[in-house]
Design goal:
The structure holds 2 protein chains of 2 kinds. Helix content of chain A is 63%, strand content 2%. Chain A has helices at residues 2-11, 14-28, 33-41, 50-68, 71-77, 83-111, 128-153, 178-183, 189-210, 228-249, 277-285, 294-297, 299-318, 322-356, and strands at 125-127, 363-364, 369-370. Classes of the chains: A mainly alpha, B mainly alpha. At the A-B interface, helix 6, strand 1, helix 7, helix 9 and helix 10 of A face helix 3, strand 1, helix 4, helix 5 and helix 6 of B.
C-alpha cells in the first residue's frame, strides 16, 4: 500500500501528470487525421461508451474512497472549501462523457448521410406547459435539496479573525482562481495575474467570431469541429481545471509541490536553482559577466519572444493552418494565432522551467518587465 | 369541463373571481389554456409557448443555464437575509459571523449562501461547456455568447468580493493574494511594467497610493475601506450589472431564434 501511495505521489507531480495529460489528450481528442488513426487503432472511443463511463467513475470513486483512509489525503479533501472541487472533478468527467457520447453518435449519423439525433420535424413541437416547466421544477427541487443537504452536513468555514500581521502558509486565492495562482509559478504577476486573465476573457468572447466553421451548430458533434473542440477542451480542462486541482490539492506550504498522500511539511526544502536566459548564455556559455546595457543583456530573450510572435504566425499560415488562414483572412487569423500562441506559452514555459531551470526569457527587474 | 364535477375544491377555486383576476386562463387543462398560461405569466413568458422536441431533453440542455439563474435567486434571497445580521466593519464583521452561527436559530443561511456560490461557479462553467459543445455560439448567437462570457466573469467577481466579507484569516489572505495581482498591472499598477514611464520628472503618477490596487482596495492593504468597497460591490454594484446583463442574455435567446438546434 505504501509503495502504491508513493507511486501516486510521484505520478501526481505536475511534470509527469501534465505531460501524460497533454499527450493522452491529443489521442482522445484528435485534431488531425494522424491522431485520429491512432485514436481508432487504440480504440480510445471506448471511453465514451457506457462501459467506459462506469469504468472511469468506478476508478475515481475507488481512488477517493481509498484516499479517505489516508490521513494526509483526507485532510486536504475534507477541507470545506475544497469539497466543490471534488464535485467539479466528477462533473467535468460526467458532462464531458455526456457530450462526447452524443457527439460520436451524431458523427456516425452524419457520416451515414442522416440528420443528427437532435433533429426533429419543425412542425413537431411540444408545449412549454407542461413539458418544460415540469423538468425545470424537478431540476430546481433536486438542486435545492442537494444544496440543503450540503449546507446541513457541512459547516461553512470560519477561521480565526483577520490578522494582517500573520499570513497563513500557504496563502491561497479562492479555488476558482487557483489556476491563475498556479500560473504564477511560471510567469510574473503582470502576465499571470493581469494580461493572461484579460486574454482569457477576450479570447472566450472572440470564439464565435474566430470559429467561422458553419458546421456543428445546434447539436453535439466532434468530427465536424476537429479544431475548435480540442483547443477549447485543452484550455478548459488542462490549463484551467487541472491547474485548479493541482493548486488546491497538491500545493502546500511555500507553494511547494506535495503529492496527495504526502505530509504538508512546513520545512520541506526545495532548492531554487532557476536562472535567466541571459545568465545561461553570457555566464554559462560565453563564460563572461552580464553586459551593463539592458538591451544587450536581454537581446536573446527579445529575439526569442519576437520570433515566437512574429515569425511563427506567417510560418503556420503557410503550413499547418493553411486552410484556416485562407478562410479567416489576415486579420482574424493573426488574432487567432496570437491567442493560441499565448495559450501555448504556458506549457512551453513550464517545460523550459522543468528541463532547463529557466526562470525568465527576458529579465528586466528594473522595470518589472520579466517574461 | 362539465358542471357536474364542480364539487372539487380546486376546480371551484380555479373558476373563482379572485383566481381568474390573477391567472386569467384558469387551471391549464386544455391546449389553449396551457398556451395562454405561458403567454400571460410575466415569469413563464421568458419561454416561448412551444419548443422543438430536443429542447426539453435533459441530455441536450443539462439544465445548467436555468440552474445558474435559480442559484442566483437563491443567493439573492439568502444574501438579503444575511444582510440583516451583518455589519461590514472591521469591528463587527467577524463577530457577526460567529453570531450567525451560534445565535440565529436554524442558521444555515450562510452555508446555503457559500455553497450556493461555489455551485453557481460550477454551473456557469458547465453551462458554457454545453453551449460550446453544441456549437450554440455560432451565428446568429455570437453576441449572446459574449454577454455570457461577461456574466461568467461577473459571477467570479461576485464570488471573489463575497469571499472577503467573513473577515477571517481565510478571507483577507485570499483577497490579499488576489488583489496583489492588481499592483502588477502594466502601466496602471505601481509594480507593473511601464508604470515608471508615466512620470513627470521625479513625480510618478502611478505610485503605491494611486494605482489600480489602491483603487480596488481603497487603501494600500486589505483593511476597513476594502471591506466596505467589497461589501457594496458584492451586495449592490455587481448584482446590479449582472441583472441588466441577465435581462439582455435571456431576451437575446428568444430574439436569436430560441434554443439552438440542427436545421
Amino acid at each position: 500500500m505504501e509503495t502504491f501511495k508513493h507511486l501516486v505521489n510521484i505520478l501526481a507531480h505536475p511534470t509527469i501528470m501534465l505531460t501524460v495529460g497533454m499527450l493522452v489528450f491529443l489521442f482522445f481528442f484528435p485534431p488531425n487525421d494522424w491522431f485520429e488513426k491512432w485514436n481508432r487503432r487504440l480504440r480510445l472511443n471506448f471511453l465514451w461508451t457506457k462501459k467506459g463511463f462506469y469504468f472511469v467513475m468506478f476508478l475515481m470513486v475507488v481512488f477517493f474512497l481509498f484516499g479517505l483512509t489516508d490521513p494526509n489525503f483526507s485532510l486536504i479533501i475534507k477541507k470545506p472549501d475544497n469539497v466543490p472541487i471534488i464535485g467539479l472533478i466528477f462533473f467535468v468527467f460526467i458532462f464531458l462523457w455526456i457530450s462526447m457520447n452524443q457527439a460520436l453518435k451524431n458523427d456516425n449519423l452524419i457520416e451515414a448521410g442522416e440528420k443528427p439525433e437532435e433533429y426533429n420535424d419543425p412542425e413537431d413541437k411540444v408545449l412549454v406547459w407542461p413539458d418544460l416547466v415540469y423538468i425545470e421544477f424537478i431540476a430546481l427541487i433536486l438542486c435545492m435539496s442537494l444544496l440543503l443537504i450540503w449546507s446541513i452536513g457541512l459547516e461553512a468555514p470560519l477561521e480565526g479573525p483577520a490578522n494582517p500581521a500573520e499570513s497563513p502558509n500557504p496563502s491561497k486565492a479562492p479555488w476558482y482562481f487557483l489556476g491563475l495562482q498556479e500560473m504564477l509559478v511560471y510567469f510574473d504577476p503582470w502576465l499571470a495575474g493581469v494580461v493572461f486573465p484579460s486574454l482569457i476573457i477576450l479570447g472566450l468572447m472572440a470564439i464565435p467570431y474566430l470559429d467561422t466553421n458553419p458546421e456543428g451548430a445546434g447539436y453535439y458533434s466532434y468530427k465536424q469541429r476537429r479544431l475548435a473542440i480540442p483547443i477549447y477542451l485543452f484550455g478548459w480542462m488542462i490549463l484551467w481545471v487541472a491547474l485548479i486541482v493541482i493548486g488546491t490539492f497538491l500545493r502546500g506550504p511555500n507553494w511547494n509541490f506535495f503529492g496527495p498522500f504526502e505530509f504538508w511539511d512546513l520545512h520541506k526544502l526545495v532548492p531554487l536553482t532557476n536562472i535567466n536566459l541571459s545568465e545561461i548564455i553570457y555566464i554559462k556559455w560565453f563564460n563572461r559577466g552580464l553586459p551593463e546595457n539592458i538591451l544587450v543583456r536581454e537581446i536573446f530573450g527579445f529575439l526569442i519572444v519576437f520570433g515566437y510572435f512574429l515569425l511563427l504566425p506567417p510560418l503556420l499560415a503557410k503550413t499547418a493552418f493553411k486552410k484556416l488562414h485562407q478562410n479567416l483572412g489576415n486579420f482574424k487569423f493573426g488574432f487567432f494565432i496570437f491567442l493560441l500562441l499565448c495559450m501555448l506559452s504556458l506549457p512551453i514555459k513550464m517545460y523550459l522551467r522543468w528541463l532547463f531551470n529557466l526562470k525568465y526569457l527576458i529579465a528586466i527587474p528594473e522595470f518589472f518587465f520579466n517574461i | 369541463m362539465s358542471d357536474k364535477k364542480k364539487s372539487n375544491i380546486f376546480q371551484r377555486l380555479g373558476e373563482s373571481q379572485v383566481w381568474k383576476s390573477i391567472i386569467r386562463s384558469g387551471i391549464p387543462r386544455t391546449r389553449r389554456q396551457r398556451m395562454m398560461s405561458v403567454l400571460n405569466s410575466v415569469f413563464l413568458h421568458l419561454h416561448p409557448v412551444r419548443l422543438p422536441r430536443h429542447a426539453v431533453k435533459v441530455k441536450f440542455t443539462w439544465c445548467m443555464g436555468g440552474l445558474t439563474f435559480f442559484l442566483f435567486l437563491v443567493l439573492t434571497i439568502t444574501g438579503i437575509l444575511l444582510m440583516f445580521y451583518y455589519r461590514p466593519t472591521v469591528e463587527y464583521a467577524y463577530t457577526d459571523m460567529i453570531d450567525l452561527g451560534e445565535q440565529v436559530p436554524l442558521g444555515i443561511m450562510r452555508e446555503i449562501h457559500r455553497w450556493g456560490a461555489h455551485a453557481m461557479v460550477i454551473t456557469v462553467w458547465l453551462h458554457m461547456f454545453r453551449v460550446f459543445m453544441t456549437g450554440s455560439y455560432k451565428p446568429p448567437r455570437e453576441f449572446n455568447w459574449v454577454v455570457g462570457v461577461i456574466l461568467l466573469t461577473l459571477t467570479l467577481l461576485l464570488s471573489f468580493t463575497g469571499y472577503l466579507l467573513p473577515w477571517d484569516q481565510l478571507a483577507i489572505w485570499a483577497v490579499t493574494v488576489g488583489s496583489n495581482m492588481a499592483r502588477a498591472t502594466p502601466f496602471l499598477g505601481h509594480e507593473g511594467p511601464g508604470a515608471a514611464l508615466l512620470a513627470l520628472g521625479d513625480i510618478n503618477f502611478v505610485n503605491i497610493g494611486s494605482d489600480v490596487k489602491f483603487a480596488l482596495l481603497g487603501g494600500r492593504f486589505v483593511g476597513e475601506a476594502a471591506l466596505l468597497r467589497f461589501y457594496v460591490l458584492h451586495c449592490i454594484g455587481l448584482p446590479f450589472i449582472v441583472m441588466i446583463l441577465m435581462a439582455i442574455h435571456f431576451w437575446r435567446i428568444r430574439k436569436d431564434g430560441g434554443i439552438s438546434g440542427p436545421t
